[in-house]
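Quiz preparation item.
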């Protein structure tokens, strides 16, 4: 399955490959070499786009209260209630909702091209999403990377998302930050590899029985 919003990229590169291949046909000399090379490059990029824009089916693990990862990639930071996950170029770039709930806020901000793992990436293009869950408020921020400035959102304010549901995509290198609700503790560590919609990143802390009635 291919990610929503990827058709134009794949179709455009496929058309480029076909056109350059057609132009190189029955040509000779430098013209043939130039357009043949362009056709080969187009074929490789088309294959790359098919791989990059893949969107496999995922099934959330654990209980409904367990927060699943919003992205494929590596955990690069955990601080207080915030976890940061960096997606490399070879990771699936479709993002998913960690918990079920109502989308109450979406703030999109254009920005620059600093690598998403850099601490100064606050200036980058980002999409801040607030989800009101049964366990409290969850905040998720999609941060675009150095290669492109395009975040594709699949949701809108007022919509209800399921746990593990697709909520958007970030093209090429990027990062997702999540602030979990109060009462959660993280189930992963820095440098752990996680999968969107599958890996449990945080669990709800059980209430302590104090014996008070």
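Solution:
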């Amino acid at each position: 399955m291919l990610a929503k919003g990827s058709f134009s990229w794949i179709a455009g590169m496929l058309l480029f490959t076909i056109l350059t291949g057609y132009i190189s046909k029955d040509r000779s000399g430098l013209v043939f070499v130039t357009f043949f090379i362009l056709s080969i490059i187009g074929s490789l990029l088309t294959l790359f786009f098919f791989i990059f824009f893949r969107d496999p089916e995922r099934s959330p693990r654990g209980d409904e209260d367990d927060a699943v990862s919003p992205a494929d990639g590596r955990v690069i930071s955990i601080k207080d209630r915030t976890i940061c996950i960096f997606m490399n170029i070879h990771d699936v770039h479709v993002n998913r909702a960690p918990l079920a709930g109502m989308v109450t806020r979406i703030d999109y901000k254009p920005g620059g091209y600093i690598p998403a793992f850099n601490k100064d990436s606050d200036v980058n293009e980002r999409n801040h999403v607030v989800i009101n869950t049964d366990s409290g408020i969850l905040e998720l921020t999609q941060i675009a990377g150095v290669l492109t400035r395009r975040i594709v959102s699949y949701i809108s304010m007022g919509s209800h998302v399921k746990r593990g549901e697709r909520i958007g995509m970030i093209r090429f290198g990027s990062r997702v930050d999540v602030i979990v609700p109060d009462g959660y503790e993280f189930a992963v560590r820095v440098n752990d590899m996680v999968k969107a919609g599958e890996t449990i990143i945080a669990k709800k802390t059980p209430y302590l029985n104090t014996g008070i009635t």
